[in-house]
Amino acid sequence: MYNLLKGKKGIIFGALDERSIAWKVAERAHEEGAEFVLTNMPAAVRMGQLNELAEQTGSEIVAANATSVEDIENLMTRTKEIFGGKIDFILHSIGMSMNVRKGRKYTDVDYNYFLKTVDISALSFHKVMQLAMKQDVMNDWGSIVALTYSAAQRVFPNYNDMAEAKAMLESVARSFGYHFGEKKKVRVNTVSQSPTETTAGSKVDSFGNFVAYADAMSPLGNASAVDCANYCLALFSDLTKYVTMQNLYHDGGFSSTGMSEEAMVKVGEGILK
Ligand code: NAI
Questions:
Q1: Ligand 1: which of 70, 156, 198, 213 to mutate, most ligand atoms within 8 Å of CB?
Q2: Does residue 106 form part of some domain?
């Protein structure tokens, strides 16, 4: 351990169970000396698993639906009370599509679900930053990270309306990153992660094939959730103070690879068809 986040305080959204990327971020941030508030939807908090993580990391839990301005307002107020002051980092690790959950195809989406997807998975990021700015929660030179996927740039047919949500999420990071940078020197970035076996990830149709294909196509292989957590920590640390408004790929090289030898061999062997 490097004490990379010693003295830093933050908010971590989106730890559901131990497979969650946010869960790994919380564990690693704790090991690196950070203190943080854990937050998730009231229903997810009621499930109780988050208590384990809170105990393990000495954290408090504040329930908040990330689509509710009121809930986020309360979360920011409570966080300031808990720490007796401002914070240094926020992780937004939230995604959900009812169209994916209900098996609606992209060409046959339900538009109420579509709006919910965008609200939960993208607009929530704007809401979090707007409230953090209004309530002056962030210390100067703080860092805010959201998790995204490269379906924002390229087509992955089963990713459905989450592709549009991720494109908006990345755009919000750029736009808000400009304003937060000007005002408070706070940096805002998105991390574009490899497919990862989590609750949200495995809702994508044929997810196992998706993971295997990405792994074969990435010179370094798929990045794990723990490695993603490590990258987020680096972005929360003072070692990345001038990185902002970026979409940063954490995908073992997948996004820059047209074809890999491994994938070609597997196609030849009939393993990948
Ligand atoms: P996860 O299912 O463990 O986490 C998703 C979280 O979003 C859950 O904790 C859930 O309770 C929370 N959430 C859903 N609706 C919410 C709401 N209204 N308010 C507050 N929280 C809400 O899955 P995972 O994979 O850890 O997802 C975290 C982030 O990583 C998501 O943004 C996801 O799109 C992104 N990501 C995941 C990849 C994967 O293959 N698993 C790949 C690239 C990005």
A1: 198
A2: yes
**Catalytic member of 113, 149, 213, 231:** 149
Report d(CA 48, CA 193) in Å as an integer.
27
Structurally, the chain folds into a number of domains equal to 1
Predicted TM-score of the model (pTM): 0.98
**Does residue 195 have its Cβ closer than 6 Å to ligand 1?**
yes
- The answer to whether residue 3 sits within a structural domain is no
The pLDDT tens digits of the residues spanning 117-176 come to 999 999 999 999 999 999 999 999 999 999 999 999 999 999 999 999 999 999 999 999
* Coil/strand/helix, residue 189: strand
Give the residue numbers spanning the domain of 251: 9-272
Beta strands across the sheet bearing 9-13: 60-61, 35-39, 9-13, 87-92, 138-148, 187-193, 247-250
What is the per-residue pLDDT across 222-261, written as a single tens digit (0 to 9) for each?
Answer: 999 999 999 999 999 999 999 999 999 999 999 999 999 9
